[in-house]
## 1
Amino acid sequence: MKFIFGFLLIIGVLVIVPAVDLAFAAGDEPGEYLDRRVVIWNLFYKMMTVAFTVGSVVSGTIIWQVWRFRESHPKATPTRYEGTDW
Amino acid sequence: MTLELQKPRPIWQIMFSTHHTDVGLLYLITSLTFLFLGGSLALGIRAELFYPGSQIIADSMTFNRIFTVHGTTLIFLFIIPFASAVGNYYVPIMVRYRDMAYPKLNAIAFWMIPPAGVLIWLGFADFTWYATPPYSIISAPGPAADMWIFGLKILGISSVLGALNFVVTILKCKHPDMSIGQIPLMAWAFLSSSLIIIVAIPTFAAALLMLLTDRLGVSGFFNPAMGGDPIAYAHLFWFTFHPEVYVLVIPAIGMMYEIIPRFSRKPIYSYNSGVFAFVMLSIVGFSSWAHHMYATGMSFTEKTVFMVGTLAAVPASAMHVFNFVATMWNGRIRFATPMMWAVGGIALFFSAGAGGVVNSAMPLDFTTHDTYWVVGHFHLFVMGTIAFGSIGYLYYMFPYVTGRMYNETWGKVHFILSFIGTILVFFTQHILGLYGMPRRIYDYPPIPEWIAMNQIASVGAMIIGISMVIFLANMIHSSGKGKPADTDDPFGLGGKYYYPFEAKNPSH
């Protein structure tokens, strides 16, 4: 439990701090964002790089789990909860 | 776990029953009917956009009517009633109570849905599911627009009545031996989403009344010609409907919390973090509504606040994904149809969330605003997460409801086709948005990239359509002629499954 909260606190900080930085690329005057399109696209590519990296890790983990922990895997063993009224 | 399987009865006995499983069945049949109706409109939209120019739909007004009713139907008449169906079946069992707290109110809440659906479908309004003012006030043809407004009004009342019932059932009718920290996570999901409904829906109810009086010409809240402000409607609408996104997604995640531990043959990794994430999502859902409105001239400070508020949902969503992954770890997973839908739903939930982070960052939102990126993003949530979780749960509850097993092979075919189709349609729409294609258009210029991507999306939609026909045939056939199910352990997972604090002593 502590691990989850600690882990997610770090994730939260990692998400929100760059977000505040991102906000300053938007500008606050009408039409100004058009002048900053290069910055915006640069941010987009940065975010996509992060998204694809994290996405690859999470998706890769899920795909590996699906393969490794399927019940037909040669190394599959019963969990300690099986056969009990859990 | 048992649902009260009953012998076949005349349909009128079920229709006029107030028992929670009967009302659940009515919700289920109604929501699935609207799933197929709304889905067929989606196929019409995709067929029209297969090539530039007019294809099968006569004019842009008809096109607008079709996508308005498509969105309204699938959100209000499929997803929400489907969650109510599941909640009606399971919440009383999970809190160990004989029925919903107010059975008659429960039946009334259901019976508001068919007339509302009829109003929406007979009217066939054209002003999008957002009822865009000032168009919806000044130019939208009546009585279609008025019928839509009345339909939504009725659905709002139905949702609030249903939500009140769930809250009272969970908080006041749970077994005295159970603390609130012992109810299953799916019941927590229904509690969270019901509380959101109770807080959020009255705002839209007020906005609908204001819209109606504006249309009647007796007020000008949102009519610029009378000094009103359409942006005020946007605030009222999104104050309700951004939290409503969580009303839609939280029950689906709750359903995944039922499926994943069961088929992994392990308890959930962290119950407390699941509860925390549900509560957190319910709160931050209200701190992010204006991220739909960055392009309306809000101040820099407002935009920043709502951007950070939106991103606060990321850790809570990540908690759920982490919890699912950790639960499956070291399990012995049976990939029966419900589990395939749940795991597919997690993967697509993550993808949809990543797209949402891009939308929420305001400089990037200016690039993607009102493009097909947004269409791809929210459909990936609605179809990839909510519908996947819901359909997976429908397969899961099928033997408990009917006493028969569905056809496993066709269930898996349904999943595989839907998964492929969903990726083809909605991932492609993200890219289409980056190429600049605006949303809500009937025709588009013959740009080769746009044509190619629209065709990929349309083929994907047809694949989903085929999969849904398979699903329908499987459900109908199996409910009458499927193999009798062992309702103690229909999926052969071993052991008798109890809810965490269900009495193991029958005399308890």
## 2
Amino acid sequence: MAGSGTAHLRQPSESLLRVENLVVDFPAGRGKKVSAVSNVSFDIAPGETLGLVGESGCGKSTTGKAIMQLPRPTRGEVSLDGTDLCSLRGEQLRNTRPKLQMIFQDPISSLNPRRTVMQIVEEPLNIWKIGTPEERRLKVSEVLSSVGIDPEAAAERKPHEFSGGQCQRISIARAVITEPSVIICDEPVSALDVSVQAQILNLLEDMKARYGLTLVFIAHDLAVVKNISDRVAVMYLGKMCEIGSPDSLYAAPAHPYTRALLAAIPLPDPNASLDTEHHLEGDLPSPISPPSGCRFRTRCPLAQEICARVEPQMQHVTGDQFVACHFPLQAVSETPVAVQA
Amino acid sequence: MQTNRDTSITHLDSSSLPTIEAIEAPSSHTVKGNRLGTAAWVAIAWIAFLALLAILAPVLPIPDPNQSFVAIARKGPTAGHWFGGDAIGRDLLSRIIWGTRSSFIVGFGAVAFGLILGGMLGLITGFFRGRVDGLITPLMNVLLAIPQFVLALSLVTVLASGAGVNSTRRLAVVVLGLGIVSIPLLGRITRANTLAWSEREFVLAAKAMGAKNGRIMVREVLPNVMPAMLSISLLGVGIAIVAEGGLSLFGVGVQLPMPSWGNIIAEGRGQMRNSPHIVIFTSIILFLTVMALNFLGDAVNRRFGVRESVL
Amino acid sequence: MSIGNQIDGLPTPSGTPGAPKLLEVRDIVTRFTTDRGSLTAVNGVSLSLERGQTLGVVGESGSGKSVLSRSIMGLLPRANTERSGQVIFEGKEISGLNDTEYRELWGDEMAMIFQDPMTALNPVMKVGLQITESLRFHLNMSKADAKDTAIALLKAVKIPEPEKRFSSYPHEMSGGMRQRVVIAVALACGPKLLFADEPTTALDVTVQAQILDLLAEQQRERFMGIILVTHDLGVVAGRADEIAVMYAGQVVEQAPTALLFSEMKMPYTEALMSAIPKLTDASHTRLAAIGGRPPDLVNPPKGCAFSPRCPYVQPRCHEEAPALTPSPTAPEHLFACFYPIGSPETEEIRLRIAAQRLMATAPQFVTPAQGPPPIGEVPAPPSTADQPEGM
């Protein structure tokens, strides 16, 4: 990983959202910068769910926010339906907002505690002056019932009267009310209990089918990501390691980091032997001075001298699986895969 | 990118409702509403009582505050004059009631002035941060570094001392002086709270929805910052009333003959040995009022501070 | 320590005459006074633990699992709290101790690891001092000895450059390193009983594995009893000898780990298990979510606390609360259910639900399982799908 390259991108015409060479730097004081996201590219076809996984500090949430242009990325291109959002200014960018929505991790923090559920869910319609007050109320009721909240009982209540799972449902209602084409879900179930998490994951699948949504699903839990995604991208320290369909990626990870992540998951099965052999040692290096070459090399069991010198590029493995590694665990396809436009 | 701002609303077929795990009824937790607590209600009653007296002062059956009765000069409470008289025989009760007018105008006026300006600056700097913040906040810090009382004293001295200044002008200048002093304090509190609330994801969510900054500030941030601002302001009112007394000691408070609690105490200082009742009665009223304001400030914070979880 | 042979690492068979268990908890009830009334956070929990053993306490938020461990340790605030029941630590009743007597126990005999390593450490104190503090208090060590011991501890929890880290502040370390320090602080005085309250919830999955390995290793070396409190069945599955599942303040099922996973009896345990997305399932497998939400502990439902959400509920469940009783086939397996999994009543309903689910969700189920759903007029995208398999 720790790799760049765009070999894994499909034709621009096939993708609804396309992120190319995205770079997000944050100033870290004294002239230094944190490179939170470095040359990340991916694309999402309409109706697809892309799972972004990685540990904290890998830049997955920053990527999600950069797609939203909140804040704007340092460099790179984010095209939604063929329009490069990074090149839009002010009002033009604001006009694209209803098409691109976001759901956040903390269900409590993402709802204004002083406003009622009605006001919260109606707000996007008010901002865009969509419909008459009567129509708006109807729409809110309809969306609320579609996320499993009783509009009659809930409309005049405030968020603190609801559980975390219910708050997350309200957030989802607010996100879908403008009928967006893409929703960025930033760890939407990480703060929830297992039983509620399952409800929300099922709900997201339902909403996706009902409103024709395309999702970017950011999470650290590989099992959750596998459940909801059509494609999974693994990130490490601001770079992309591996991307592919979850079934092939999980069955045969090509990147040593993906393998380590999978090995670290505690399985709810006492008979499953703990794969301590592939457990990672050490900590994430500092993103202020990331390792040269492949950023994973400092913790990689397979690292060689070349990994410090040359940054690996995305290579095709099999099917739609691509990996950025000099020594992938799966054979790399020999066939030229220049599907690049 | 097609920015399709459809002004009609497409209603989805309600028969296609997904199979969700039953519509959940919202929590049965009933919140005990509108409870400020007894202490706060007593405080409100006290302040309302004083405010009422101050407003009704002209029609109350009390003597003119500037009329001297030789018989009660420096005397304690009598049947006709419940609080006794001051050094030159003016009815103390009447002076305190009339003084409530100027003290409340100073207290509430100065803080309202500071709250509007300081609150606005705090909201703007806290919300936008960056360059705006870098410009205004250091200025506020400089203002804060100057001893507050000295600053107020100098402001009032420069703007309204000397012989030709009438009482009304002086009152306005005292309000202005104390108001300016309270700007950086209130601004700072507002800014700190705004900074914290602007970090919240619902602000990001509002931006993601396409809400403009002004709307976000007014609708999302301000209502959350308000309780802290109000709570501090109530404390501030008490402080401003006391500070006016301090200015009076230096002869630049509310100008005699117009009474204020501050100048009654300042005047009565000389009579402490023989007729302490002047200072004592006024101070008790002052003390009770400041305490009531503090209680109220706390109660406001508790009552309107946000409940964010069920427990 | 009264029993010499335990220190060799031999597990004590439970019920050895004359050898008191490390910890025995009987009928703990903890209530909090809230605005809305009395909240029963822990409702009659009994447990026991031997040295060298790990008891996993599993439950969702609000199940009372964290309050339970604090109740046992005596860490709850006294105000607005009402606690009853017995806590017997090495044969001594400790629930009636006062703060001073507790302080003798804390750190020395029993210690706790908290969820958030950042708040568990004092941010303005060097980590070394936070370790030596308890060494000097409990073991009366000299300053130099305490420092040596602290550095040895930092080494034991695998902190690189322990001498240098001794004088670091918590904020200079990563989350995983901080949790190692928290563990070092907890282990400092060689406690016999360690409470680990969601020790890895705030950590990344790779770091979580490191920390759990470390705890297991330290447990073997020090022969500690561990109570591992977590919401994650995955965490306890591979690490605990015995598991207690909590719901609404009560233990609803308790069994040795292997038995619990192979023969779940309580519908809640089963529901909790099936709600977890499995790595082995194909993507877009619909999850078996538990409907509804945990009960309000101020006004708990009548009868079994899980009855409002239980798929197998029977009229009796709404009327009577089942007690935690041993399974007739395996006495070490306790559960609180009138109609456990495997009973005829439950099996009948299970079949009915399975049939219904198949009927109701079949159309919805199929669509997302095969690539992107048919929204938009877009042809199925994966252009790389026809590539020959490159393995």
